[in-house]
Amino acid sequence: MRTRPLKVALLGCGVVGSEVARIMTTHADDLAARIGAPVELAGVAVRRPSKVREGIDPALITTDATALVKRGDIDVVVEVIGGIEPARTLITTAFEHGASVVSANKALLAQDGAALHAAAEANGKDLYYEAAVAGAIPLIRPLRESLAGDKVNRVLGIVNGTTNFILDKMDSTGAGYQEALDEATALGYAEADPTADVEGFDAAAKAAILAGIAFHTRVRLDDVHREGMTEVTAADFASAKEMGCTIKLLAICERAEDGASVTARVHPAMIPLTHPLASVRGAYNAVFVESDASGQLMFYGPGAGGSPTASAVLGDLVAVCRNRLSGATGPGESAYAALPVSPMGDVVTRYHISLDVADKPGVLAQVATVFAEHGVSIDTVRQQGKDGEASLVVVTHRASDAALGGTVEALRKLDTVRGVASIMRVEGE
Amino acid sequence: MRTRPLKVALLGCGVVGSEVARIMTTHADDLAARIGAPVELAGVAVRRPSKVREGIDPALITTDATALVKRGDIDVVVEVIGGIEPARTLITTAFEHGASVVSANKALLAQDGAALHAAAEANGKDLYYEAAVAGAIPLIRPLRESLAGDKVNRVLGIVNGTTNFILDKMDSTGAGYQEALDEATALGYAEADPTADVEGFDAAAKAAILAGIAFHTRVRLDDVHREGMTEVTAADFASAKEMGCTIKLLAICERAEDGASVTARVHPAMIPLTHPLASVRGAYNAVFVESDASGQLMFYGPGAGGSPTASAVLGDLVAVCRNRLSGATGPGESAYAALPVSPMGDVVTRYHISLDVADKPGVLAQVATVFAEHGVSIDTVRQQGKDGEASLVVVTHRASDAALGGTVEALRKLDTVRGVASIMRVEGE
């Protein structure tokens, strides 16, 4: 074993960073044995240097992250500060000064992954980011390496623990969105400002990263159709139950049936209770991957939290350190397929639509005609009347999102349709 | 991209090999783009050269596998013939003649993994074998790389599809073992001679491989305690149901609580219906991995079959080819921890024991005394009487297998105990 240590600079020492530092210290011998050389924490960049950080030598603490990544003797920079800047500049500076990078920064990778990969490649360095998607669950490496000889057609998953906690709570207790969110906040599963989670931004970033790797195509955050889950109601869950379904916020990356384009989207959807994703509870994550040769694979585990995320960071750290010792780099960006990313209108799926309609003869015929005119085939209709008002629940066969959108627009114009109570996609069948 | 192709020799062209050859041809462009150089099928060693093999140039077919691996221009040998010999000699010969090796051979790796790894290392070559455990499910790579910075404490899984199909059938239809086996055979899930599957040899080989990687310790097939599932009865399933459990054939690799030793075992066990492994149906496989930092992860998918196994082989092929191009090798054997493998008697778990006893006063007291004398604490006892005969169902708290064995031996000597109807471990709680 090499005795000269590999030097690691840690950018950020919050929930994840402090756990990375802790494990690097407590498991130093194991890490050295697995890497083939000791690893040494050479510096820790933080915003608040006065905070007491147990187990970390105060001499390592600095507020000057830029100087740390420019030192020139750093082998690996571990970036766990998150956000776009200064993380982006620090990472590219690290590459320019000879370091490889392990990052957990999903937002940055979803927005600027291509540029970061290019910077890594230009400098002959590694960029690893298993922790950016679904915490400890190995997903990036299986997609990038284990399935490198296969053709992935679909990635379907629960990749945000906060929203899964909220939806699970609504499902199991009948609570409304706000009540469930309040509980998630109280228990620390939701942040004070939950926007990134509940509006689907976090999941959309992960969808962009997963789609890019799965389809060997650049997919940016802007390419991902995103709908949050703040408008999911207790009534939606009641409708889902009648369908033998529950509701999950799903990230879905699909290759079109003709193979010539891909789509990526995040939205709440009904999935059958018999689908393995339906039983993913609390803040857990799970991702289905469907490929030509492998069939259906599922990966399940804790999608967030300091320890699980640190586990993913450290796995990458070991890999990157091994690469440094052998003088090689791991697989970089693979975007050779360069498939076009189609808009949401091209997505084909099934829909569950609740309409408030006038309770009089001929309404169903009128509504059915609108669906037919837009080429959307109806699977089932359920009609319920009460006091001159009635509701129609329509479940369609597979149709394009554009056709469904046109249908709904036309339905809204019917005198007999008082309102469209909800539209929800049905997935996983 | 390099234009000179990497040359692949395929040893075996059965269900898996023919699928590997097919994908190498149909997906040649994708593989080249992902590797950075084209891959060329340079030879296919078979036993029956006269068999028509669609899509494979007859000029590539040979019966002389030894000459093929000795050619000297082969970059990667893909070994999918299985069994100990000639596979072992062919693999070591391949290393000596400059090739890296991708193998799906669980039996050989479980028996001689250390020697094969040593041969690979001595020649500076790669030995990859994702396909040896749980078909397409990425398990070796996640354990060896994704969790390389974590401490794995437990691997618990269903790693044999044939036996899971049989047990699932017994559970869902109430069928006996023989009836369910007959159906599995008729449907092609069980081989004409099902011994390797139903007696747990196949699962034990996989347990040895998984334990070795998980604990950075050499674990051989002989170190794995193995019990088959041929004696599981419909009555056992009835008992399991009363417990809120089902029965699965599990491979269990554990680190002892003090961390100083490990165990590996394969046997049928009751697991709660609420455990995710309980709902693994048909011939699917699923493996739970528990680590210090990551918590519980689960990997699920098709555990066998030509296509899924080929997916795993091709993922390894891409990785090994990339390594050849970069002049590096991937992670080799990691056995530095060298923990002792403890015997089955040291395993601590819970037990479900059915006793046929005389239906008279004092029997329960007698039985309870025997348990107490052996230090095995009872959780619940259920007593059922019928016509002078009675049965006692005892569920214990956690106890060592040795203590339980001593208890059962003593119980058999009691006049009032007519027989021990079944003993089954209870896992996954």
TrEMBL record, chains A, B:
ACT domain span: 352-425
Catalytic activity: L-homoserine + NADP(+) = L-aspartate 4-semialdehyde + NADPH + H(+); L-homoserine + NAD(+) = L-aspartate 4-semialdehyde + NADH + H(+)
E.C. no: 1.1.1.3
Enzyme class label: oxidoreductase
One GO-annotated biological process of the protein: threonine biosynthetic process
Active-site residues, Swiss-Prot/TrEMBL: K206 (proton donor)
Alphabetized UniProt keyword annotations: Amino-acid biosynthesis, Metal-binding, Methionine biosynthesis, NAD, NADP, Oxidoreductase, Sodium, Threonine biosynthesis
InterPro entries listed in its UniProt record: ACT-like_dom_sf, ACT_dom, Asp/hSer_DH_NAD-bd, HDH, HDH_cat, HDH_CS, NAD(P)-bd_dom_sf
Keyword hit for Translocase: no
Domain of life: Bacteria
One Pfam family cited in the UniProt record for this chain: ACT
Residues bound to NADPH: K106
Residues that hold L-homoserine according to the record: E191
CDD domains on file: ACT_HSDH-Hom
Cofactor(s) needed: a metal cation
Pathway: Amino-acid biosynthesis; L-threonine biosynthesis; L-threonine from L-aspartate: step 3/5; Amino-acid biosynthesis; L-methionine biosynthesis via de novo pathway; L-homoserine from L-aspartate: step 3/3
Gene Ontology molecular-function annotations: homoserine dehydrogenase activity; metal ion binding; NADP binding
Sequence positions that bind NADP(+): L11, G12, C13, G14, V15, V16, G17, S18
Protein family membership: Belongs to the homoserine dehydrogenase family.
Protein function: Catalyzes the conversion of L-aspartate-beta-semialdehyde (L-Asa) to L-homoserine (L-Hse), the third step in the biosynthesis of threonine and methionine from aspartate.
Entry protein name: Homoserine dehydrogenase
Natural source organism: Streptomyces ferrugineus
Lineage: Bacteria, Bacillati, Actinomycetota, Actinomycetes, Kitasatosporales
